[in-house]
């Protein structure tokens, strides 16, 4: 029986020398954190839009997917012709993709969400799902239904194995960039006046207006930042795994949304913690239980966690004041 | 020229008209009061002045410009501050952040912001004690003080106050009214909406009585105070 | 004072929120058939006391007994079933339902029909439904809003909404009615009408326990007044006694002198002050 | 006057996650249909393809099948996935409409006693058995790891490969688990597998994941020989894995069109490349073309478009019809006869060559 | 005294008998005039209506977010397949049995999470959907047949007539819809239906006026799961083959959209919207690969032009509260 084999594997894992187990664990951890960093970046987009508009932007995963494709297209078409050094090409590809996706984000907000701002929240959710289906199929039509691969020359292949633990440059880059972006974003929201305006808008649109805050503009800013971060995550993902497909928005979007909920939706550090935790949980599930049952395990933990912390790890526990 | 003037303003929510053509005038330096039963349209009128709702027709003039089509965030810059009904402070922001947001139009002028903050603290010493506390944890009275203080931050020419005494203990009501008078003394024109007609008429110069979206009475506050209709309907006197 | 046991009695009830002691060993007895008021500065913990009684929060310590049975541990709907109904400080109506449906909510706990009975529309269910309807009608009439029965709650004026909330509470046929600032946002004439209604409710045999900041209302209708500050009871007695208590004046009422003077002044000036 | 065309259905996932397979199937069938029409059609009538998009969803598949039936097509080519095919072929069976699958390899499909169901692709168990023999006898593997992707095809093939190995007892299955398709990080499962020191990894999923798996596995320093199922290794696989990592990867696979010496394979491939710039990236669409050719042959051979006649013809009279993927004959239950599998290797310059 | 106080007090209600009579006649005659294919489209429409109504109880009536309704549908379908194929249980019996098992699962699974706030509940129900689907794929105890799924060979028989052709299923499914409509209509106008609406409007106020909100929510979830489970029996016999691919998250999402698109809590809305979601892609078939693109666009446009839904249950005046807050 298959379960027999799986448990035999688990049992023999116990017999491995302690050091090897440690190395394997550390390696799992590095990988979990890398995946988690991508989840976090995407989760930020969910959380920011949710925080300000109370909208679960189901199209966010697709911004991420399009970001990945755009980065790819920039690299293989325009930039490949140039004589720029690799790092400059990568930066340019990322920036261009980010700019384009931000623009798209603002456009989608204007066309599909703003007309619904005064309607029930679920109305906008359905609209977001419609946008998601639209973008996904648009990507399929533009880039084809087949998998595309980032060209090999675009990926810096640098690997280390300190103490037997495999770490690659891309992994460090992903973790580093994600962390920097998240800290930067957190500072921006906590320390600047515009950040305070964002927080105020998140609490109460009308009162924010009375302070002289242009709510439409704040929402535009949110739709520049959220999809922009998604695009960066998309390019990073493309570089790390190379292959991209139009369905990646759904699968990663769902994961990132899970991460945002896990951390407490609407909360920026929460998105980060949630993403990392999800990455690690997946790694634990696949590594120590069974990859086939991994998602069941992850969702089980998530549900248990929410039973005890109904608003996520860092979500405010506002018992509704009566 | 009067500071604020509404002419035949009609306001509707969806297809339901809530205010059926009201006209009123607020002179510079005055305290003007709008009295009226619940649902008469007082809040609606203030929301139209501050731009939160577009009136269906009519004009709202601040000085010599019509502001009825200008978005709310622009109107603040032109000198109207609105302290909304039910305080509406930002509960998860600190007292000081709330005040800073009030001075959003002065962003980029930190010294202006800090001198205004100082002025508010002078008016409400209690807020200074709590400047780093989250606004949501303030008591009702303190929140009202914060809301008013926040309204003063953009240096408004005219302050719209919507039921500042709502839900406050008697002692605090007295304090709030004392401060409103003090603010007016500093040269800020005030348009006040109140249920507590007795107190409101006592401090204001001019008053309007609004009933189901229409102005039914207006005049100097002292006159209205002695008007039998007002006495009967709002002061509970026979 | 009679010797009969009070309808509701709170013994040394405390409640903390994080580090904040919102209610601090609070004792109170509410006598059957009375109108009892609870007053105190903002944030004193009055609403919290109501939430403790009605099961929305659970006290950290102390006892709450109603008709000599313990309330602690009951869920809010069980408290209603036991005979305590309430209104909220900030209105909580079912905005998109009609007034009639709003009031029928009160009768929910007095009916028994389950899923199957409702689908089969049994005789018992029909009888029960008819009873609920007539009860709801009675409450709407008592609060003088019967003519608004088919209006959606959100289309009502504020004063009518306040009444609707009271009607909804009354519909559960409570022995004790708890009102949180029923006159908040009402003008003097409206609150006069409200006072009449509250008296009428009391006279129909329902005990009333209310929070109010409007002293005209409190002093006008209460049989008994308790005063709270920082979660503690600082005074208690008849309206007159409480009004004279220096602690209450200091903490809550303030001195009205200044205003009286001002009023006198203004009256005197009246003749000349033509602006 | 133009003759009324003969309508032949093509059921394929034109949208949805398998859209690229559907698209290629459509391209392939179009080529052979054009060929037939250029040669004067069937029975003197032109052929028309009726396209039905099943989105890779069973429910849509049932609907498409019903529409094919309502549209009175002569026969149907389709469809791709086994679990998608199953409800459709149940409907075709009831309507007595010949349907020839091109990508549905699950054994159970032909074992339900359906009379009108055929397939031009080969069953999982044939490939599984080939792998078992190849791994144990050729590669001398003692410790075998199998990873599938929990799709009907991937899991079916994995099971089919595991069964004979367990029975023969000459090698040990040291690891057996599944990944989730659509994900990209498989390091956790690969690390786990690596702890078992397998000699061979058989991955039975698709190239998109296969490319990632071989790269992640090599990055982690796992040396096991990588063998892919017939959906795992192709040009895209090499692109995703990177040439340095992909080189040396093996796969079990029917002979590729490029390695077939039949003239029809060569012309077909040339035409495909002319139209679409590159050869089809997976083997299945070519089977769709063959399914179409088989139907065409049956119509031409029996001189009828009646489904019952076609069914009998396909089962009894069609012998070694020269298809693009080799001679086509169907056995008693509708499976294609004579599966030939080869092991291919990815060379250092990214070519696929049959392993000798 | 007014007994007609709940739900669309519209024109149609005033003449309901005529309308319903005409509608039933038209519906009964319809399959005689359309092809088997369109009859089949109507069969799946009917199954979607059953599912939509089951979800509407949860989302529309009680206001609980649920994007995992397919989990219960799957449980019902698999129960049918397993019990029918392995134990030869009669299909008619399996309708209530599948319903009860799915309801039981709904009761047990949602018990611990029912108190979660909107979006958190949404997430968890998505999780439940995925958990059930993956479990089915992983073939626990060899019960579910893994990704291949299971076959259902048995057929409904009524007085010796086998329900097999599209038209047979058409009558079966729409009879089930009619029965369900009747029951739900009764519920909407009863104590239970009102309790659900109270919870949707304001759970705290509902609790404080004596409604056991936990009971109301759990009842809705259990009933919704049960109906979906019973619908699973019909689906399984119609499809003859069921596999995890039929119960993906995307299917749940479409179902969720149906309820919102119809107008939350509106029964005719659900019928219309599931029709639209069913027929629209069929009409777009000629656009081949542009089909889903246009479908997505259509969803956005429908929401923008009818944010209150195709057939709102009440004149839900759009809430003028400006976005944000709550
Ligand atoms: N957002 C809204 N949507 C629809 N109608 C509204 C809305 N807000 C207010 N109304 C209606 O407009 C009318 C006037 O309301 P408004 O709030 O201006 O009254 P008010 O005089 O401020 O009363 P209060 O003393 O209760 O504050 C009322 O009939 C009210 O029901
Ligand atoms: N759910 C809660 N979480 C945290 N603190 C709370 C909560 N509910 C009440 N408090 C705090 O408890 C204290 C008492 O609040 P409460 O609402 O009982 O005051 P109150 O006497 O009703 O005041 P008011 O007259 O303004 O309504 C306040 O400081 C309040 O902030
Ligand atoms: Mg107001
Ligand atoms: Mg209170």
Unreliable stretches of chain A: 1-14
Structural class of chain A: mainly alpha
What is the CATH topology classification name of chain C? Rossmann fold
**Percent of residues in β-strands of chain C:** 15-25%
Sheet having the most strands of chain C: 6 strands, mixed
Uncertain stretches of 5 or more adjacent residues of chain C: 270-275
**What hetero molecules are bound to the protein chains?**
adenosine-5'-triphosphate, magnesium ion
Q: How many independent structural domains of chain C?
A: 1
Instruction: Outline the biggest β-sheet of chain A.
Output: 2 strands, antiparallel
CA-based shape of chain A: globular
- Tally of separate helices of chain C: 11
Task: Estimate percent helicity of chain C.
Answer: 40-55%
Total DSSP E strands of chain A: 4
The SS-based structural class of chain C is alpha/beta
Adjacency order of strands in the biggest sheet of chain C: 6-7-8-3-9-10
In CATH, the topology of chain A is named ABC transporter involved in vitamin B12 uptake, BtuC
> How would you name the CATH homologous superfamily of chain C?
P-loop containing nucleotide triphosphate hydrolases
Question: What does this entry look like structurally?
Answer:
- The complex is a heteropentamer of chains A (322), B (238), C (275), D (356) and E (326).
- Chain B has 238 residues and is α/β, with parallel strands linked by helices.
- Helices cover 38% and strands 26% of the residues of chain B.
- Chain B has ten helices and ten strands.
- In chain B, strand 9 and strand 10 form a beta hairpin.
- Chain B is globular.
- The mean pLDDT of chain B is 90.
- Chain C has one domain: 3-Layer(aba) Sandwich (Rossmann fold), CATH 3.40.50.300.
- Chain C has a six-stranded mixed β-sheet with strand order 6-7-8-3-9-10, with helices on both faces. In chain C, strands 2-1-4-5 form a four-stranded antiparallel β-sheet, with helices on one face.
- By secondary structure, chain C is α/β, with parallel strands linked by helices.
- Chain C has eleven helices and ten strands.
- The radius of gyration of chain C is 21 Å and the shape is globular.
- Chain D is α/β, with parallel strands linked by helices and 356 residues long.
- In chain D, the strands form three sheets. A seven-stranded mixed β-sheet of chain D has the order 7-6-8-9-10-13-14, with helices on both faces.
- In chain D, helix 1 links the parallel strand 1 and strand 2.
- The mean pLDDT of chain D is 89.
- Chain E has a domain of 215 residues.
- Chain E contains 13 helices and four strands.
- In chain E, the strands form two sheets. Chain E has a two-stranded antiparallel sheet with strand order 1-4. A two-stranded antiparallel ribbon of chain E has the order 2-3.
- In chain E, helix 3 packs parallel to helix 7 and helix 4 packs across helix 5.
- The radius of gyration of chain E is 20 Å and the shape is globular.
- In chain E, 60% of the residues are buried.
- The chains are: A mainly alpha (322), B alpha/beta (238), C alpha/beta (275), D alpha/beta (356), E mainly alpha (326).
- The interface between A and E is large, with 60 and 54 residues.
- One adenosine-5'-triphosphate sits at the interface of chains C and B.
């Amino acid at each position: 029986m298959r379960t027999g084999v799986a448990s035999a594997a688990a049992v023999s894992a116990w017999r491995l020398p302690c050091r090897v187990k440690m190395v394997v664990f550390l390696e799992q951890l590095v990988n979990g954190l890398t995946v988690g960093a991508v989840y976090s970046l995407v989760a930020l987009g969910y959380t920011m839009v949710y925080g300000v508009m109370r909208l679960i932007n189901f199209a966010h995963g697709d911004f991420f997917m399009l970001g990945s494709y755009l980065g790819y297209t920039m690299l293989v078409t325009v930039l490949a012709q140039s004589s720029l050094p690799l790092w400059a090409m990568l930066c340019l590809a990322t920036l261009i993709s980010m700019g384009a996706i931000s623009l798209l984000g603002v456009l989608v907000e204007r066309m599909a969400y703003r007309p619904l701002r005064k309607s029930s929240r679920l109305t906008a959710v359905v609209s977001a799902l419609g946008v998601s289906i639209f973008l996904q199929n648009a990507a399929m039509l533009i880039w084809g239904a087949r998998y595309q691969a980032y060209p090999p020359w675009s990926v810096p292949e640098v690997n280390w194995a300190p103490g037997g633990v495999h770490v690659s440059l891309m992994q460090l880059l992903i973790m580093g960039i994600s962390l920097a972006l998240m800290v930067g974003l957190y500072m921006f929201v906590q320390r600047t006046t515009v950040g305070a305006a964002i927080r105020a808008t998140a609490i109460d649109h009308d009162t924010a207006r009375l302070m002289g805050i242009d709510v439409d503009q704040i929402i535009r800013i949110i739709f520049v930042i959220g999809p922009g971060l998604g695009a960066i995550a998309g390019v990073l993902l493309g570089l790390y795994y190379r292959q991209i497909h139009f369905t990646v928005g759904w699968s990663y979007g769902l994961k990132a949304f899970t991460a945002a909920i896990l951390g407490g939706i609407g909360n920026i550090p929460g998105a980060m913690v949630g993403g990392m935790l999800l990455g690690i949980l997946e790694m634990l599930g696949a590594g120590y239980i069974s990859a086939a049952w991994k998602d069941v395990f992850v969702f089980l933990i998530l549900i248990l966690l929410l039973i005890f912390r109904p608003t996520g790890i860092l979500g405010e526990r506002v018992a509704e004041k009566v | 020229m009067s500071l604020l003037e509404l002419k035949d303003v009609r306001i509707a929510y969806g297809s339901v008209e809530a205010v059926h053509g009201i006209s009123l005038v607020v002179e510079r330096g005055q305290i003007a009061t709008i009295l009226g039963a619940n649902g008469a349209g007082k809040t609606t009128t203030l929301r139209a002045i501050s731009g939160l709702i577009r009136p269906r027709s009519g004009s709202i003039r601040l000085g010599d410009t019509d502001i009825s089509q200008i978005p709310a965030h622009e109107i603040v810059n032109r000198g109207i501050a609105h302290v909304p009904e039910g305080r509406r402070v930002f509960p998860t922001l600190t007292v000081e952040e709330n005040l800073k947001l009030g001075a959003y139009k002065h962003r980029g002028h930190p010294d202006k912001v800090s001198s205004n903050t100082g002025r508010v603290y002078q008016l409400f010493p209690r807020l200074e004690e709590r400047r780093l506390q989250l606004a949501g944890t303030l008591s009702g009275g303190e929140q009202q003080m914060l809301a008013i203080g926040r309204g003063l931050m953009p240096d408004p020419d005219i302050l719209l106050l919507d039921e500042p005494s709502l839900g406050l203990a008697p002692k605090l009501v007295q304090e709030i009214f004392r401060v409103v008078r003090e603010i007016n003394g500093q040269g800020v024109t005030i348009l006040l909406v109140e249920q507590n007609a007795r107190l409101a008429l006592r401090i204001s110069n001019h008053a309007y009585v609004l009933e189901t979206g229409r102005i039914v009475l207006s005049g100097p506050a002292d006159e209205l105070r002695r008007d039998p209709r007002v006495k009967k309907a709002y002061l509970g006197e026979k | 004072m009679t010797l009969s046991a009070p309808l509701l009695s709170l013994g040394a009830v405390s409640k903390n929120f994080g580090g904040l002691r919102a209610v601090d060993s609070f004792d109170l007895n509410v006598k059957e058939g009375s109108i009892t008021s609870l007053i105190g500065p903002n944030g004193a913990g009055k609403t919290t006391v109501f939430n403790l009684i009605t099961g929305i929060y659970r006290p950290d310590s102390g006892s709450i007994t109603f008709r000599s049975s313990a309330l602690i541990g009951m869920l809010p709907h069980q408290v209603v079933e036991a005979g305590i109904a309430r209104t909220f400080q900030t209105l909580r109506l079912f905005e998109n339902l009609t007034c009639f449906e709003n009031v029928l909510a009160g009768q929910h706990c007095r009916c028994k029909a389950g899923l199957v009975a409702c689908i089969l529309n049994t005789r018992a269910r029909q009888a029960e439904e008819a009873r609920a309807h007539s009860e709801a009608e009675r409450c709407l009439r008592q609060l003088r809003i019967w003519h608004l029965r088919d209006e959606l709650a959100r289309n009502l004026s504020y004063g009518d909404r306040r009444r609707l909330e009271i009607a909804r509470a009354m519909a559960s046929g409570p022995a004790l009615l708890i009102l949180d600032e029923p006159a908040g946002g009402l003008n003097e004439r409206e609150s006069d009408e409200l006072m009449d209604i509250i008296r009428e409710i009391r006279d129909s045999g329902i005990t009333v326990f209310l929070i109010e900041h409007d002293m005209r209302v409190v002093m006008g209708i209460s049989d008994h007044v308790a005063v709270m500050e920082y979660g503690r009871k600082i005074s208690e007695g008849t309206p007159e006694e409480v009004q004279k208590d220096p602690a209450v004046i200091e903490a809550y009422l303030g001195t009205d002198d200044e205003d009286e003077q001002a009023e006198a002044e203004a009256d005197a000036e009246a003749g000349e002050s033509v602006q | 006057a133009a003759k009324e065309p003969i309508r032949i259905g093509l059921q394929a996932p034109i949208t949805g996650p398998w859209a690229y397979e559907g698209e290629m199937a459509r391209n392939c069938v179009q080529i052979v249909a054009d060929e037939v029409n250029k040669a004067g059609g069937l029975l003197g009538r032109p052929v028309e393809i009726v396209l039905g998009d099943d989105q890779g969803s069973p429910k849509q598949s049932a609907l498409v099948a019903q529409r094919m039936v309502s549209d009175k097509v002569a026969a149907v080519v389709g469809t791709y996935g086994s679990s998608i095919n199953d409800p459709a072929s149940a409907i075709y069976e009831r309507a007595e409409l010949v349907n020839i699958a091109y990508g549905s390899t699950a054994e159970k499909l032909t074992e339900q006693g359906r009379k009108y169901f055929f397939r031009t692709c080969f069953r999982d168990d044939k490939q599984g058995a080939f792998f078992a023999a190849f791994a144990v006898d050729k590669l001398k593997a003692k410790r075998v790891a199998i990873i599938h992707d929990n799709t009907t095809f991937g899991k079916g093939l994995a099971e089919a490969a595991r069964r004979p190995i367990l029975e023969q007892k000459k090698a040990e299955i040291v690891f057996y688990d599944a990944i989730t398709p659509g994900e990209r990080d498989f390091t956790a499962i690969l690390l786990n597998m690596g702890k078992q020191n397998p000699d061979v990894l058989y991955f039975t999923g698709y190239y998109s994941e296969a490319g990632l798996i071989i790269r992640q596995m090599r990055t982690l320093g796992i040396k096991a020989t990588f063998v892919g199922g017939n959906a795992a290794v192709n040009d895209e696989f090499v692109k995703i894995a990177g040439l340095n990592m992909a080189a040396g990867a093996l796969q079990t696979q029917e002979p590729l069109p490029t390695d077939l010496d039949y003239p029809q394979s060569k012309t077909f491939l040339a035409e495909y490349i002319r139209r679409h710039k590159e050869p089809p990236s997976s083997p299945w669409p070519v089977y769709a073309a063959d399914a179409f050719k088989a139907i065409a042959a049956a119509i031409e051979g029996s001189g009828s478009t009646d489904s019952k006649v076609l069914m009998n013809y396909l089962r009894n009279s069609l012998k070694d019809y020269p298809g693009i993927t080799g001679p086509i004959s169907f056995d008693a239950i509708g499976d294609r006869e004579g599966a030939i599998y080869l092991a291919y290797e990815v060379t250092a310059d990214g070519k696929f060559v049959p392993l000798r | 005294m007014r007994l007609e106080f709940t739900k669309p007090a519209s024109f149609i209600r005033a003449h309901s008998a005529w309308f319903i009579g005409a509608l039933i006649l038209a519906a009964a005659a319809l399959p005689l005039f359309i092809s088997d294919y369109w009859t089949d489209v109507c069969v799946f429409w009917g199954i979607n209506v059953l599912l939509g109504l089951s979800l509407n109880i949860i989302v529309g009536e009680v206001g609980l977010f649920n994007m995992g309704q397919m989990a219960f549908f799957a449980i019902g379908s698999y129960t049918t397949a397993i019990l029918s194929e392995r134990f030869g249980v009669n299909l008619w019996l399996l309708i209530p049995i599948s319903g009860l098992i799915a309801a039981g699962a709904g009761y047990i699974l949602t018990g611990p999470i029912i108190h979660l706030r909107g979006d958190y509940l949404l997430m968890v129900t998505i999780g439940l959907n995925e958990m059930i689907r993956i479990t089915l794929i992983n073939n626990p105890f060899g019960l579910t047949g893994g990704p291949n799924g299971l076959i259902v060979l048995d057929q409904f028989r009524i007085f010796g007539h086998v329900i097999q052709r599209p038209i047979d299923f058409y009558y079966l499914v729409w009879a089930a819809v009619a029965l369900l409509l009747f029951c739900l209509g009764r519920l909407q106008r009863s104590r239970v239906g009102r309790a659900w609406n109270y919870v949707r409007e304001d759970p705290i106020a509902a609790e404080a006026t004596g409604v056991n909100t936990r009971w109301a929510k759990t009842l809705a979830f259990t009933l919704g799961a049960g109906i979906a489970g019973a619908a699973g029996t019909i689906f399984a016999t119609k499809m003859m083959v069921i596999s995890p691919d039929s119960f993906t998250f995307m299917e749940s999402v479409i179902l969720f959209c149906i309820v919102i698109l119809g107008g939350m809590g509106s029964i005719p809305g659900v019928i219309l919207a599931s029709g639209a979601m069913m027929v629209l892609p069929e009409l777009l078939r000629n656009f081949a690969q542009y089909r889903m693109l246009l479908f997505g666009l259509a969803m956005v446009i429908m929401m923008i032009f009818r944010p209150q839904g195709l057939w709102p249950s009440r004149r839900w005046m759009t809430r003028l509260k400006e976005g944000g807050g709550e």
